[in-house]
Amino acid sequence: MKALIFRETGETKSVLELAAIPTPAVAPGEALVRVLLSPINASDLHMVRGRYGYQPALPASPGIEGVGIVEAVGAGVQSLVVGTRAVFVDTWNTFREQIVCPADKLVPVPDGLDDSAAAASYINPLTAWTLTLSSHNLKEGDWLLQTAAASSVGKFVLQLARQYRFKTINVIRRREQETIIRNLGGKEFICTADEDLRARLQELTAGKGVERAIDCVAGELSAEIARNLAPAGTMLVYGALSSHRQTDPSKFIMPLFPPRLIYSTAAVRGWWLPRWVPSQPLGEVGQRRAIFSPCCRRASLRRRRLCGIR
Ligand SMILES: NC(=O)c1ccc[n+]([C@@H]2O[C@H](COP(=O)([O-])OP(=O)(O)OC[C@H]3O[C@@H](n4cnc5c(N)ncnc54)[C@H](OP(=O)(O)O)[C@@H]3O)[C@@H](O)[C@H]2O)c1
Questions:
Q1: N or C, which end of the chain is more exposed by having fewer CB within 10 Å?
Q2: pTM exceeds 0.85 for this model
Q3: Is residue 19 a contact partner of residue 91, using CB atoms and an 8 Å limit?
C-alpha cells in the first residue's frame, strides 16, 4: 500500500515522501481500515517539523483523524463488521491507504454524514466543544474571548455559542474576517490590524477584564490578553499559531506579566485534546462528534483546497 511518510523531521516539502509499505497484519481486538479521507491539521505540520506534543518513532506517517471502511477485523472483535464506515479516534498515522488500529478506537459514521464531513468531524469540532462546554463550563449568558476567531475551531465555537447561548468576543487579524464571524452570529470583534487590543478589551468588558478565554495564537497577543484577565479569570492556550514556520527562539515565548497574574489570581493553562480524549468513555467522544456536519464539510473542503488536493 501507499503511505505518506517522513524518515526525519523537517519542512514537509523536504521530508515527506510517498512510499510503498506492506499492509500490516491484524491482531486480536484490532481492525484493518481502508482510509478514504484524512484532513490536514496544523498538528500534522508540527509533527513533521518535530515540534508536536507527541512524536512517533520514525519512519512514520502524519495524520490524526480521518474516515475509512473496515476491511478486516481481528479475533474477538464484536463491535464492528467488515464494510462499516468509521472515523478514527485517538489514532495516529492516518496519511496512508490502510491502517490497523484497536477496534474500540473506531466510531461508526451515521449514513447522513458524507465522507468529507465525517473525516473532519473529530479534532476541531471536539476541541471547540470540550474547550467551551466542558473545560470552561460555559452557561447561557457567559462571555468567552477567542483568538483566531475565523479559524476552523473558532467557527465551531461560534456555532456552539449560538446553540448554547454564550456570548463571544472575537479577536481577528484581518478586517475581512469580520463577515465570517457575523454570518455565524458573532457580534463583538477586536481586529488587531487596526485596533488597540488593550483599549478594546477594557471597553468591551467595562474595565473588569476577561473572565474566560481560549487562545491558539500565543506569543505577544496572548500575553496581552493574559494581562487583561479578570480576577480569577482563566485563559486556555490550545495552539501557538504565532510560532508557525518560525525558527527564532524568541517567537516561542509568551511574555507574561507576573504582577497582573499574581494580584488577579488569574490562570493561563495549556490545553491539548489528546490528553482529554483518553480520559473519556468512547461513547462520549463519539456523541460529541456528529453535531457539526455542515460546517465540518466546509472546513474540510477548504483544507483540501489550501493543500492543493482535489
Ligand atoms: N490543543 C489541541 O488539542 C488543538 C486541537 C485542534 C486545533 N488546535 C490548534 O488550533 C489552532 C487553529 O487550528 P484550525 O485548524 O482551526 O486553524 P485554521 O482553520 O487553519 O485557521 C487558522 C486561523 O488563524 C489565523 N492565524 C494564523 N496565524 C495567526 C497569527 N500569527 N496571529 C493571529 N491569527 C493567526 C488565520 O488567519 P489568516 O486567515 O489571516 O491566515 C486563520 O484565521 C492551530 O494552532 C491548531 O494546532 C489545537
A1: C
A2: yes
A3: no
